[in-house]
Amino acid sequence: MKILIVEDETELAKSMEEYLSAAKYRCENAPTFVEAVDKISRYDYDCILLDISLPDGNGLKILEELKKENKQEGVIIISAKNSLDDKIKGLEIGADDYLTKPFHLSELTARIYSLIRRRQFNSSNIIRQNEIEINLLAKNVLVHHEEVALTRKEFDLLIYFIGNKNRVLSKSTLAEHLSGDFADMLDNHDFVYAHVKNLKKKLSDAGCEPYIKTVYGTGYKWEG
User: Fold this and answer.
1) With helix as H, strand as E and coil as C, how does 125-151 read?
2) What average pLDDT does range 154-170 have in this prediction?
3) What predicted TM-score, i.e. pTM, was given to this entire model?
């Protein structure tokens, strides 16, 4: 799960990144309005943590830009402003949640989890795909009721595939999901092939149907 932290307070951004990374989220940072707009226009995220007061602009304008581009990311506004008008405006524009600083990182994490679960998996903690059962809280995967040991990247891939069922996902999209904007600096995306191959083998060895299809010259698709 990939999260963009739009926050100009360095220590707070660092704390959020460390806490969320420990909870197995992949985090990127954008401390300014300009950097946030650039990242949002180039990449997709599962959730955006959006500060309203940025040194070079208002976070609500970023939210407006997201909606104008019809982006589907979940957005949680994090702000020191406890203004009712700001909360109402943010939610009306399209934010999913609003958290006033200071907040406990455990509460932030719970809200992120709840938002992603609600938007992608119909509010359920358990995802079932025929013989596959995924527990989002425990982060484990069962096939025919037997646990399959996946690496963090393989687990992320599986969730991403099922969350985008029947959509063709290019190698560059998968590379970005697994590595963030670091993927832009790589000479190739062969590591995606390796992770997909390993995931397919582990699922197949556990008796799973071959849901991951290779779309020649394009990428991969989860069919099922």
Assistant:
1) CEEEECCEEEECCCCEEEECCEEECCC
2) 90
3) 0.74
